[in-house]
Amino acid sequence: MSTPMGRTVTLVLIAPDGMLLGAAGPFDVDTPWWQEVGEVVAAARRFYGIDVTVLRILRTSRPRPHGGSVTYLAATHDIPPDRVAPVDPDALNDDPRRQSWAWIRRAARRHASPTA
Fold it and tell me: Domains (ranges, CATH) in the chain?
């Protein structure tokens, strides 16, 4: 059985207050493991000049890990560069079955202020 090689990453960027900023990517990272975000954070800094905190996976191109295309939600305090792409705000709609503490925009606010 072969090991998947790398993954293609897109970051949907939000501000700490939950405001949608846009999408960075796609860009490639060497590790295929979806939960490993160190390379993703480093690539965002290298390619876009921004520091991000990865909050969660939004979608993947494969039904199971690993490799393929992965879209993450990421919070940033930085102003993203002009080359970020617009994102449909509906991409951030939470499933009503998700617990309220895990809602996307609430997660961004918690990232900004741990007491929120």
Answer: 7-112 (3.90.79)
